[in-house]
Write a structure and sequence with these properties.
- There is one protein chain.
- The protein is α+β, with helices and mostly antiparallel strands.
- The protein folds into four domains: 1-25 and 347-460 and 568-690, no CATH class; 49-222, Alpha-Beta Plaits (2-Layer Sandwich), CATH 3.30.70.1070; 223-343, no CATH class; 464-567, Jelly Rolls (Sandwich).
- 19% of the residues lie in helices and 38% in strands.
- Strands 2, 3, 4, 5, 6, 11, 12, 13, 14 and 15 form a ten-stranded antiparallel sheet that branches.
- Strand 13 (190-198) and strand 14 (201-212) form a beta hairpin.
- Helix 6 (242-261) crosses helix 7 (278-287) and helix 6 packs across helix 10.
- The longest helix has 20 residues, at 242-261.
- The radius of gyration is 34 Å and the shape is globular.
Length: 690
């Protein structure tokens, strides 16, 4: 959460303290993701397995593709040269060197360094302090070695001082340096990734290096599935049945997760984690995230029990050979336990609720899942509250246009608002936008839309549209393809005052008609660069020239009729506002996602992302929900299915998705209440006024 959002939310809480109800209420009472399980999940389900503990100095040789970085600067990676030797120190090792210059002029120091390098000297560095820049040559383990370097420098005309120095000029603890003495990394904690020889042993993976009071400890970061497969490989022969392996994988997993939740590090040590046979890997995959539970918590196994029951030779293997399933094997040894899939579990807590106005409630909900944490903000609007009005809003009141949602809410003096439907980067809405009975942007692919009736009735429907223009003199009918957008080849489009003051230059081989108050004011058949003014109470019609269309009879002063034909019928249903989005999430209380039918691309349909969605309950409440995402340690977002299930859990029976990603945002009385993944100007939104 950025500072501006924090200040805004704190001010909001202070301002409405008298009407806030603060506290926690569990939607799910289980607590499987507490303790160090939270960190484990956020870290990508990685275990840290110690492979060297409390070593004073570690020698490593880089192999192919090895890179390193500090925890403080994870994006600043250093590539380590394959075959080269490096040393890892905890503390500040002393070394002997030859100083050849000390100057206050940094540029002079750089020039002198380059001259030394050109003369063939290695290990040349500039050590900078507050007011001096010292040039040193070489990092030697004893004084005599530096004497030899000094003699070579004297022959080249340099003045020399042999000195013992400390490598670490900062307060950072860990130092990784080349065998020649060049410092590569310096930080509180280091990470290496790739192939490396550590103290003579070849290893591969991601390594975490931490300082201890007695030296340095190196951990191998290993995914939980690979770790479980390695455990099976240590304890079970290759001819083991899959059912026995799968049952034991669940036992190991249950034990490890119970230890993690309790903050214990009592895990099994293993050596071989690479090149595991597929029978072990497949057995772990088969069990997914299954664990044994009892009394709404992990079943309590001690270390010996996790290893011995069911013992490979006397337990799981003979039962599997006798035809027992995984569930039957576990039930045989662990009665009164329940098998739980953690990936299906969501633990929710309401952090706070706030009464924004009569009939308008704000909730912030924290969720813990196996995939990571989620933060959801929800506005609950009582549709029976006559003082509150819901409507879409167009940024800056014009196409194309974009604006900050907070500015849009402020300009409309609204109580609350969320981002609306999809839009082109220029600000042109991509889909239906209908305000006060006037079409601003036509529907796209019959996608799901929120329809608002004249008495505030809400419904969600997939909307189709066909516009038509009728000329009274010629009896001709023009079918429209779009509104307030440039025509594609062969299309007829209109531009109303929401497009701005002027229509775009008409396409070649087209006719342009200006209509005001239902009367033709101008007919332009000549191709030029002139842009027609758009009447406030009319539109500019650009007609594709067609051989079978009688345009000769179009005359200034003739009557014209424009009609929007919507499916469902907007006129019959007294629809005054509509906002397109999609896809549909819920229909008649059941999850029914119509992403393919509405022609959405995979970037919308797949994966977890920041999202905004709305749902309508049976008891006439509108739920506006925004989930933050793309922030792994804070909120991972939701899939469309997860958003549908979330809205269903709150009582929604119909629901639809809105634009998401960087657009996903909720504003209450001018303050952003969620934590957007980026700052983005949007084309349209949905606001609540009093």
């Amino acid at each position: 959460m950025n500072l501006q959002n924090k200040i805004g939310r704190l001010f909001f809480l202070f301002l409405f303290l008298a009407i806030f109800t603060l506290g926690w209420s569990g939607l799910v009472q289980a607590d499987y993701f507490s303790g160090e399980m939270q960190d484990f999940i956020i870290a990508g389900h990685q275990l840290e397995l110690p492979i060297f503990e409390n070593v004073e100095m570690l020698e490593l040789q880089a192999r192919e593709g090895l890179e390193g970085w500090t925890i403080e600067k994870p994006n600043q990676k250093v590539k380590l040269t394959s075959g080269k030797l490096y040393q890892l120190y905890n503390g500040s090792p002393k070394f002997w060197t030859v100083q050849v210059l000390a100057t206050e002029d940094q540029s002079k120091a750089a020039i002198m360094k380059n001259r030394l390098v050109q003369q063939g000297f290695q290990g040349v560095e500039v050590i900078s302090t507050t007011d001096l820049h010292k040039i040193i040559v070489g990092h030697k383990t004893n004084r005599q070695q530096s004497v030899a370097v000094a003699e070579r420098l004297i022959k080249k005309g340099w003045q020399t001082w042999i000195r013992e120095m400390s490598l670490n000029q900062t307060d950072k603890t860990l130092i990784l340096m080349e065998n020649t003495g060049k410092m590569m990394l310096n930080g509180d904690q280091l990470k290496l990734k790739g192939k490396v020889n550590l103290n003579g042993v070849n290893r591969e993976g991601e390594f975490l290096i931490k300082p201890t009071t007695e030296g340095t400890t190196i951990y191998l970061s290993i995914g939980i599935d690979r770790y479980l497969a390695a455990m099976l490989a240590v304890n079970f022969p290759l001819d083991s049945q899959q059912e026995a392996l799968a049952a034991q994988a669940i036992i190991y997993r249950t034990y490890l997760y119970s230890q993690l939740k309790a903050g214990q590090k009592n895990i099994f040590q293993i050596n071989k984690v690479n090149n595991l046979n597929s029978i072990y890997v497949d057995a772990v995959k088969k069990t997914s995230q299954l664990v044994l539970t009892q009394n709404n918590d992990y079943y309590q196994l001690n270390r010996e029990g996790a290893t011995a029951y069911p013992a490979p030779r006397s337990g799981a293997l003979p039962l599997a050979a006798a035809g027992f399933t995984v569930e039957e094997i576990l039930d045989h040894y662990f009665k009164d336990t329940t098998l739980l899939d953690l990936s299906d579990l969501t633990e929710s807590k309401v952090k706070y609720t706030a009464r924004i106005a009569k009939g308008l409630i704000l909730k912030e909900i924290r969720q813990s899942t196996w995939q990571g944490p989620r933060l959801v903000t929800v506005v609950d609007l009582d549709l029976d509250e006559p003082e509150l009005k819901l409507k879409p809003v167009l940024a800056k009141g014009v196409i194309p246009g974009r604006d900050d949602l907070a500015e849009m809410v402020k300009e409309m003096n609204a109580l609350a608002g969320v981002n609306g439907g999809y839009f082109h980067y220029t600000g042109k809405p991509l889909g239906l936008l209908y305000l006060q009975g006037q079409l601003i942007s036509e529907p796209l692919y019959r996608r799901s839309s929120l329809l608002i009736g004249e008495n505030g009735e809400l419904s969600i429907s997939r909307v189709g549209w066909q516009g038509e223009i009728r000329f009274s003199d010629t009896k001709s009918v023009i079918e429209l393809a779009g509104v307030n957008r440039k025509a594609q080849s062969g299309e007829n489009v209109i531009f109303n005052h929401y497009y701005g003051h002027k229509a775009p230059i008409k396409p070649k081989k087209s006719v342009e008609v200006v209509v005001k108050d239902g009367i033709i004011k101008t007919v332009n058949k000549i191709q030029n660069e002139e842009q027609q003014l758009i009447p406030q109470t009319g539109y500019v019609l650009q007609i594709n020239q067609q051989d079978d269309l009688d345009l000769a009879g179009l005359k200034i002063g003739s009557k014209v009729t424009y009609r929007d034909n919507f499916r469902p019928d907007f006129q019959k249903n007294k629809i005054i506002h509509a906002l397109g989005g999609g896809p549909q999430l819920l229909l008649k209380g059941q999850v029914e996602i119509t992403g393919k039918e509405e022609n959405f691309q995979p970037d919308i349909l797949q994966g977890r992302a920041p999202r905004t969605a709305l749902g309508i309950t049976e008891d006439k409440h509108l739920l506006l929900a925004t989930v933050d995402g793309r922030q792994p340690d804070f909120s991972i977002g939701m899939t469309l299915k997860e958003m549908a299930e979330f809205l269903k859990s709150l009582g929604a029976t119909s629901a639809m998705n809105l634009d998401g990603g960087g657009s996903a945002r909720m504003v209450i009385r001018g303050f952003t209440m969620n934590n957007p993944s980026q700052k983005r100007l949007i084309s349209n939104g949905l606001i609540i006024n009093d």
